Amino acid sequence: MRTVFSKFKGFIIDLDGVIYLDKRPIPFAKSFISYLRKENKQYVFLTNDSSVSPVEYSRILSRLGIKCSDNQVITPISNFIEIIKKDSAKKEKIMIFSSKKLKSYIKKQGVKIIEDLSRFKETKNILVSGNINFNYKDLMYASLCIQNGANLYATSIDNSYPTELGNVPATGAIVTAITKTYPTRVTNLGKPSKKIFKLARERLGLRKSEILTIGDNIKTDIAGSNISGIKSALVLTGKTSRLIAKKSRIKPTYTIKNLKL
Ligand SMILES: [Mg+2]
After folding, report:
1. What pLDDT score was predicted for residue 90?
2. Same domain for 223 and 147?
3. What pTM did the predictor assign?
């Protein structure tokens, strides 16, 4: 695969199913990243999983022996912070429905948020990110914010995610409950949204033609890369089998078995 990788200056790399699976490193991932470093290639990690902050991800990766700095990890939260910082109209009156850890990370990034749920009528933007402590009160106030005209941002629109117990509700399922209460437009902050790929490209500081996306999910990694005009490699170490890939209407530029060089 060295011949494919050598064509590109920068890489947008998914985490789960590409670098690790159940937080255990996938064979060849570590040596692939070492190769990128040795060849002076640029890379960022782009994940839809918002359960931890970008800073925590960089720590997790470092512990696995994969070198990366805090700003080399992009999650839907990074996209949210970028949107809020760029658009002054969106800077204020924000309510966050996420884990405590994520909320405190967002606050640390300088985003002012409304803590008091009873101020739902003045809230202009809400962020919903599924978490184990999400409860009826959150659902109720998120719906009330929407009814009073707030914009709805979601860290993903995936309805479920796999666990050892089986598939459990993800952010998309929570967002659906909110929009069933009061129909509204949802802004998906995660892949395949064009905006998050744009953010990844900006971090790399490269042209589209110089970048390769590497991911295991056709619907998020490959579809998002395709609509963003970036070449992609589907790696078969995660969610997608060769058969599923063959049947899909969404086609990557390359299909690779693993990250072996
Ligand atoms: Mg993945």
Report:
1. 67
2. no
3. 0.89
